[in-house]
């Protein structure tokens, strides 16, 4: 979505510049004006395409990690490429695991202070390894339909509440 907005603003800026240019060159040969109008029309068509893109067509998910919570929005995606932009807004390092499982949220059996990878009934699809507070990381995955948990599995963090559900359909 951000990209689309930037593109639309860019088109507006180009159109404004051209309008001003036409006004200033009012006495110039008409050929110049025709070219400018054609360029403006082409730019406008591109802008309309960008605006027509769907609400979350690119499966852009943004989320935060903090003590002791994982939050993402939206908490669902459609099958295929999913882009997680995850910010660590806590005061210590955290990690972000994408786990495919039908186990209920927060109910993965622990082996001591974290769950073993792998564990029965779950598959760790991929992860952003521990990253610092105040930083943001991007994880792009191709996900199959199913139920997921997004978690931090650092010692004690899952039990403390760092897990949330995610559904791909
Ligand atoms: Cu954590």
Tell me what the structure shows.
It is a single chain. The protein is an alpha+beta fold. The protein folds into 2 domains: 2-52; 60-168, Immunoglobulin-like (Sandwich), CATH 2.60.40. It contains 3 helices and 9 strands; from the N terminus they run ααββββββββαβ. It has helices at residues 2-24, 30-52, 157-160, and strands spanning 60-66, 69-73, 76-77, 80-88, 94-101, 122-131, 136-143, 146-151, 163-168. β1 and β2 form a beta hairpin. The radius of gyration is 24 Å and the shape is globular. The protein starts with a helix and ends with a strand. The relative contact order is 0.17. The model is unreliable at 1-52 (pLDDT under 50). The site of copper (II) ion has 5 residues, from loops.
Q: What is the chain-wise order of helices and strands? A: HHEEEEEEEEHE
Which structural class matches the secondary elements?
A: alpha+beta
Spell out which ligands are present: copper (II) ion
Q: What integer value in Å does the Rg equal?
A: 24 Å
Q: Low-confidence runs (pLDDT<50, min 5 residues)?
A: 1-52
The number of helical segments is 3
> Considering DSSP H and I runs of 4 or more, what fraction of the residues is helical?
25-40%
Q: What is the topological layout?
A:
Blueprint: H1 2-24, H2 30-52, E1 60-66, E2 69-73, E3 76-77, E4 80-88, E5 94-101, E6 122-131, E7 136-143, E8 146-151, H3 157-160, E9 163-168
Parallel strand pairs: 1-4, 3-9
Antiparallel strand pairs: 1-2, 4-7, 5-6, 5-8, 8-9
The chain binds copper (II) ion (CU).
């Amino acid at each position: 979505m951000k990209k689309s907005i930037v593109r639309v603003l860019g088109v507006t800026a180009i159109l404004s510049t051209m309008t001003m240019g036409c006004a200033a060159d009012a006495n110039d040969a008409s050929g110049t004006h025709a070219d400018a109008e054609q360029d403006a029309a082409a730019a406008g068509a591109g802008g309309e395409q960008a605006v027509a893109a769907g609400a979350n067509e690119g499966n852009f998910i943004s989320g935060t990690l903090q003590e002791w919570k994982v939050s993402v929005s939206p908490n669902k995606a459609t099958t295929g490429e999913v882009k997680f932009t995850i910010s660590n807004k806590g005061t210590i390092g955290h990690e972000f695991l994408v786990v495919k499982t039908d186990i209920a949220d927060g109910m993965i059996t622990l082996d001591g202070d974290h769950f073993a990878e792998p564990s029965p009934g779950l598959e760790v699809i991929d992860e952003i390894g521990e990253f610092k507070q105040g930083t943001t990381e991007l994880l792009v995955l191709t996900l199959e339909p199913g139920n997921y948990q997004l978690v931090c599995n650092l010692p004690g963090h899952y039990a403390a509440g760092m897990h949330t559900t995610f559904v791909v359909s």
